[in-house]
Amino acid sequence: MLISTVVTGVGGQGIVSATDIIAAVALNAGLDVKKSDVHGMAQRGGAVVSFVRYGDRVFSPIIERGTADYLIALEELEALRGIAYLKDTGTVILSNLHSPPPEVALGYKSYPEHIDEQLVKIKPGIHCSKADVKGMLKQHPAYSINMFLLGIYAGFQSFEKMLWLDAIKNRFQKPGNATESFLYGMNQRG
Fold first, then answer.
1. Which range marks the domain in which residue 78 is found?
2. What is the pLDDT of residues 3-55, one digit of tens each?
3. What is the total count of domains within the chain?
4. Which strand (E) or helix (H) includes residue 154?
């Protein structure tokens, strides 16, 4: 068994925290875990990509293109950038949040429409689980996007819920909103 997950978004969205929690859950379940982060211009709203792999034996944290089981995109456009990592039968957990990268915000490029449809055209065999982040934030403005999507991701995994909750509690000094966001996401799996 080997599960490879790519988490992508823009700086400030908690990508590294999300993969830290995935790694902690797998490690606490007795699995071998490797993790790697690529920050780029994260502090200026640039792309951030994190890789986490877990299983019986993991030799490298790097995920080759076309081999990831899961792609968690905290920002829609970053899903298009990260789709090359996903295997042809993988799962995308896709936020509907638009946080335009610098080239879009500066007017050099336009923000693409119907990204979920584009993803399926690129890789027809994938499962696209759309996460209504905008709706979640409208109902629960204090909830965190990364933990909401992590809750959806957890629904696809076989780990016990308590392992997830313990990892969240150990990651944050005040885990209240993170835990609530995660639990809300677990109930939204699509």
1. 2-186
2. 999 999 887 778 999 999 999 999 999 999 999 987 655 455 567 899 999 99
3. 1
4. helix 145-154
